[in-house]
Each structure stands twice: as structure tokens, then as C-alpha cells.
Amino acid sequence: MEENYKMLAKTLFGFEDILAKELTQLGAMKVEKGVRNVSFEGDKGFMYKANLGLRTAIKILKPIHSFRVTREEDLYKNVKNMKWETYLKSTGSLAVDATVHNSVFTHSQYTALKTKDAIVDRFRDIDGTRPNVDLRFPDLKINVHIDRQRCTISLDTSGESLHRRGYKTATNIAPINEVLAAGLIMMSGWDGQTDFMDPMCGSGTMLAEAAMIACNIPPNLMRKEFAFERWEDWDVELFEKIEESLLKKTRDFHHKIMGYDKSPSAVAKAKENIKNAHLDEFVHIQHEDFFKTQKSGHEKLHMVFNPPYGERLENLNVEEFYGNIGSTLKHGYPNTNAWLITSNLEALKSVGLRPSRKIKVFNAKLEARLVKYEMYEGSKKAKKQDN
Fold this sequence. Notes:
THUMP_dom, RNA-binding, SAM-dependent_MTases_sf, methyltransferase, alpha/beta, 15 strands, elongated, seven-stranded mixed beta sheet, THUMP domain-containing protein, single chain
């Protein structure tokens, strides 16, 4: 039996609850929420499963050593004393990244360099050879985290950030991050039981993530590589078994997922990405200006979108644009739950509708709000009288 060990899943601010729920549903043990991270326990198979199956994780780290640091020498000495030869051949390659919250170590790159020196010096002392540094495709990716006087050394099991799902070859200006898109959809409470729409779909990220959520398709099946595939203990049979067990849990989807964009190039890119993700049977994309559309049918519609802002809004009147969002929803989209994310908090006032929910999130480094507008079939008053 493989033994369980502690791991740490990193995420975006505000997604800790969703990630903890995802981990619990996947079968993680001892799930504990932190800030922008969730710790948990599992075995090697679960580490593979977490990387393949988590929608809101950016990275999965496996801590292997922790110690106290009060001065520079403490870092070098402790790292050099670790048995790196069990993780890496002397002919292999490594990369180190660091995050620091400490008065002695104030520079993350310097911390990473010191760690790398200690590892390389250990190998040199053992047999005179040393591993190379390869920042792009290392055999071993190491994470150093120093918080006050505690240093934790972890192996990065994921490699490239998990938002790089592998289906996106075409992007527009400021495309939404896949982890952010998945988290917003999950936060909005969509469960695949109604039609879904992104009326300003850009390169189709929201649509792809919605389709994978609806069908319970693991989000990272299309990735070219995870960091653990270069490890000494890489178990391809176990990985394939985990992959197979996740694929058995996919489910049928009996509704529609629709995307509009008024830019023909965006529509072409979105279609290409959806095709790459093998999701074209679930997702329908049309060249439409949302402000000239209205909802067809009476069924409930769930909408999540990321209106353009900043560089994508250069030639637009922001107040008018957000005002048009409000009037299109009000007059054209009854029986719709519409969620949008924006970092332009002032512009929200121009929508002219009262949001029923506002959630603080971050889009990259920009503080943003995910807001919900409930469009009723008739008036709100009539709705209450019917109940």
C-alpha cells in the first residue's frame, strides 16, 4: 500500500471553499483551508488524481522538509543536508522557485539561487558531478516557501500552472484564466441542469470550462505533461488507472451551452479551442452582438461572462456599454440568472439593475466583483404573488 502524505493545493483568492469541496469529493483526507491554498493528505495515486481532476487548483505541492531559518546559513545548511539523490540523478536538471515573507530573506530570486547552490554543492561533494538548471523542462521542480522563521521545501508535482489545460491554442487580448473561469462558474452555482450562455465569449474559455463541469470531464486530460512524469518513481500504469477511473465518472448533458461574440476573429478562435478540447458536440458558438439579441424559449438560462475592460474597451463609452448590458438583460432575457465579473467597480453602477449577490474575487492582480442579476419571467412583484 502506498503511504499517505501531506500536500498543498494552491489556488486564487476567494476559491478556497470551492477547492476544499473539490478535494473532499475527490477523496482527499484531512482537508484544511488556508489563504489561497488548501492542504490535504493522499497517496501517490491521489496526487495524480488531484492534478488531473481539480478545476480550481493552480499547483499541487508535495512538502518534503521543513525547518527553522533565522539567518542565511540556515537555509544553505538544511537544504544541503537533504538527500536530494533520492529525487534526482546528478546528470538531471532542476529549477527552483521561492516565495518569501521574512526579514532575512527579502528577495525570492536570491532565495531560489541559494537553494539551488546548496543542492548542486551536495551532488558535487558526493561524486564530482552536478545537475544542470533548466527553467523550462526540469526533471525536478522545487518550491521554497519562507514564512517568518519557517522554511518549507516542496516538490512541485504539477510543473506549469494547472490553468494551462492544453486545449487553448488561440487567444484574444486579455483572455480569462481557465482556473478563474472554472471557479466563477462553480461559484455561480451552475450544475449543468439548465442551458448555459456566455454572451461575450472571447476565445471560449468560459464555454469549455462549463462543458467540462456539465459532463464531469477531468479538466487536465489534455495537458502535455505534469512535473511528476519526470520523477524517479513515476508510475505510468497507476496514472493510466487513475485517468480511467476519472473518465468512468463522466456524465451525460441534456442542455445547451451557447457562446456569442461580435468579433468574427474571436468566434473563430473560440470554435478552434472548443474543437481542440473535443467539446464541440456540447458547445454552440455564434457571431452575434449580445445587445441585439434576446432569449429564445422559456427555459431557465444561466449566464456567466467577463465583459471587456481596459485595453479591450479603448474605443467604447464604458457607461453606455454597461448600461446596454443592463437593458439587454432586462428586456431580452427573462428567467435568467446572469453573473458577470468586472474589475471596473464604477461601471457596475451603470448597469441599472440591483445585483442580488456580489462576491470579491481577483482577476490576475486586479480586484474584481462577481455579481449576480436575477431576471424574472414577469415582474418581481408578480413572481412573489405566484409563490
